[in-house]
Amino acid sequence: MLAGCGGSQSTLNPHSHAATDIANLFWVMMAVSFGGLALITGLLVLAWVRRGRRGFGDPDDPHPGEKPSWFVVVGMGVVFPLMVVTALFIVGNWAIVNVTQAPAASSTAMTVDAIGHQWYWEFRYPGTKVVTADELHIPVGTRVNLVATTADVIHSFWVPELNRKIDTIPGQQNRILLYANKVGVYRGDCAEFCGLQHAHMGMLVYVQPKAKFRAWLRKQDAPAAGPTTAAARRGERVFLSGSASCSSCHTIRGTPARGTVGPDLTHVGSRTTLASLTIPNTRAELDRWLTNPQLVKPGNRMPTLSLTPSDRQALVAYLESLR
Ligand code: CUA
Q1: Helical H runs in 116-256?
Q2: Parallel, antiparallel or unpaired: strands 202-208 and 135-139
Q3: Among 43, 51, 206, 314, which has the highest number of CB atoms less than 10 A from its own CB?
Q4: Residue 58 domain flag
């Protein structure tokens, strides 16, 4: 229980107005619950200490202890709990309304589309060609309208330090306000069971200073730069060749690769992780992934390629060059 109270994915470590409201609601609920527990425990102890004593009223009453006190029965038993529950209802509703309100398009500075896939996150920036996977970049102190949809089943986009979760429902657009008041990296996860690799559907939200974010967006908007080394050139040929068939599932803008089954790889080399935060994006891990993706993340849609080791190393060199 205590392990859930800290770390990089804690709702008790808020970095936005919405997340602060949620954390405050938790503490209010917690305080009132413990207050109630203390009161009831206290009354029980009091009853035990005073057991056998005579009650109020007539000393000749044969059952003095059973006389009900209206204050205790109606006041403490009905009125007081009703007041507490009503107060919690009002506070809870206020917080729900505060964090739930879908942002009006006019009140937000930018829109990002988050599309859930089995099992990765696709992020698109309308008005640009930018499509990335698992690593969302947003500018600090900016109201971002996040539009959540799904390519297959129900997922749930959840970055606990920034806001509540929002489900991705087939055939439906759900919106949530994403706002961060501090630069940093915030971890999120899919919060709705969506199949075998639900546990490996993480994401990182990079909250950047505005100028840095704009530079990132410009760079991501550009098509992939052509390979410059011999190994990378060979890797590109492998990628586009019919035998590896990478291009039937993946897009690399600037090349004929236009597949839409797997993540867009136009700038895959600029990401820090692969396969939805399952492995770090290093040459060794990418090589391991390309050798047997089913061993790294069983059940995912990536087929095992039968590449020669040298073709595979060329492919790694090419993909890592896509920055
Ligand atoms: Cu996607 Cu769980």
Answers
A1: 210-221, 230-240
A2: parallel
A3: 314
A4: no
Claim: this prediction has a pTM higher than 0.70: yes
How is residue 176 written in tokens? 């949530």
Is the C-beta atom of 155 inside 6 A of ligand 1?
Answer: yes
Backbone angles phi, psi at 144, to 5 degrees: -110, 125
Domain that residue 311 falls in: 230-321
Q: Tell me whether residue 57 is in a domain.
A: no
Of 197, 221, 245, at which residue does a domain stop? 221
Mean pLDDT value across residues 67-96:
87
As a whole number of angstroms, the distance between CA 182 and CA 135 comes to 17
- The string of pLDDT tens digits covering residues 43-66 is 899 988 887 766 555 566 666 556
CB of 131 sitting under 6 A from ligand 1: no
CA 239/CA 293 separation, integer angstroms: 16
Task: Read off the pLDDT of residues 198-255 as tens digits, 9 standing for 90 and up.
Answer: 999 999 999 999 999 999 999 999 999 889 999 999 999 999 987 778 989 999 999 9
164 Cα: distance to centroid of ligand 1 (angstroms): 16
Same domain flag for 299 and 239? yes
